[in-house]
Amino acid sequence: MNSIDLSPGAFALPKPEASAEEKATQLPIPQGWKILCVLPEVDQKIAGTSLDLVRDTASLRQEEHASTVLFVMKVGADAYADKTKFPTGPWCKEGDFVLVRTYTGTRFKIFGKEFRLINDDQVDAVVQDPRGLTRA
To answer: How far is CA 62 from CA 65, 94, 135, in A?
Structure first.
């Protein structure tokens, strides 16, 4: 039987100088019909004003938490496999920006970056350019 080392320090974080590839090994692999998405960066500047207004930390967190646009990183092996539910095929693929409902998915952070695991049927639309989209 394999043993798992649970001693202190066994799960050390990658060093700051670690490459992006080394840090990427921390990403979970979506199982079943789940889709792994990352939250695009929330612009700190407030758009639509002639002033250089900047969001405070609380409002940045609220925008991240309630975001409706996600970037698809990985799709689970069983996502969109149900031909009865998805007769026209997958609703999105890796590399797409998707529109989802506010507060959708299992939220978690890795090295301060927010990710979400969503169900395959929680994708409402594919977005070509998400830069102009804001919550209403």
So the answer is: 5, 26, 11
